[in-house]
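By way of example, what follows is a protein record of this kind.
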Amino acid sequence: MACPDAHLWLAAILKELEAFIANSSFVDVPRPPSTTNVVKGKWVFRVKQLPGEPPVYKARYVAKGFTQRYAVDFFDTFSPTAKPATIRAVLDLAARLNMEIHSMDVSNAFLQGVLRELIFMERPAGFHLPFPSNSVWQLRRPVYGLKQAPREWHAKLAATLAELGFSTSRADPSLFLRTSPSPFYILVYVDDMILITADSAELERVKRELGSRLKCKDLGELQHYLGMEITRDRATRTISLSQGHYLQQVLERFDMARGTPQVTPLPVGHHLTPLTSPSSSSHPYAELIGSLMYAMVSTRPDLAYPISA
C-alpha cells in the first residue's frame, strides 16, 4: 500500500485477521483434491463515519459466495431483518411509555455463528502468514460473504436470547420480547440491536449477559440506527427520525453534492432514443435509486413521487 492512510488500512486488516483467529474461524489444512470446491475470497474496504465522530477504517476478508455450490457448500439461506414498520412501532411504544432505549453492536457477528457444512476457502493473498503456501482454510465459522452466514448468525443470536428468557415475535422474527420480570424488547437488524425496557437495572443486567455470551459493544442511549439519526424529547415523549447525514453521503457518493436543483429531471419535450441514451451499466442508476428508496421507506415518504416519476 502506498496511499497516505496506508497505516490505517493495514491496522484494519490486522484487526480482521486477529478476529478470525480469536473466533477460531478456520483450521489451516492441505489443499484438497481438485474435485473439491474451494471457495474464493477477497478483501472489502470501507470507511465508516457517524455524524460528529472520526472516520473508522474497516477491512473485511469475505467469501465470494457465488463460488459456493448448492447442496454442497450451503442449503437454506433465509435470515430475517427488522421491518421498517417494526422499528417505528417499537420506538413509538418506547417514547409513549417513557422507556429506556439503548443500543448494542455485535463485533464480527457472523464469525460467532456455527458453520454446519464442510467448506474450504482460499487464504488471503499478499501476506506472509505462518502456513504452507499450498494450504487452504477449512472454515469453522460462517465468514462474511457465505450464503448461509446471516442465517447461522441469526440462529446463534436467537438461541442466546432464548437462554435469557426472550421469545420471538410472531409479527416480526427480528423482534424478541419478554414480559417478566418487566416488559423488555430487543429489535435486531443483523448485528445492530435496540434494547427497550422501563427497568434500568434489568437493562444493565441483560447488557452484561449479552456481553459475556457474545462480543458486544455497548453504545449507550440510542442515537443512530441504520443510517438514521434518533432525536428524543422525553419531556414531550416524542422521538424524531432523520437521515440528513445519510442523504448527504448519498449526494457525495454520486457526485451530486454541488448539483443545482432542477424542477424536472429532463428538459420539457426531450425525447430519449437508444442512440442518445447512455448504457445503464456505465452509470450507477440502480444503486442511486436503491439508496434513495431506503430513505423513502425509512424517513422520507415525500421522495416517493420524484423517485418513481
Q: What stands out?
A: The radius of gyration is 23 Å. The mean pLDDT is 91. Residues 231 and 240 are 5 Å apart (CA to CA). The chain is about 30% helix and 25% strand.
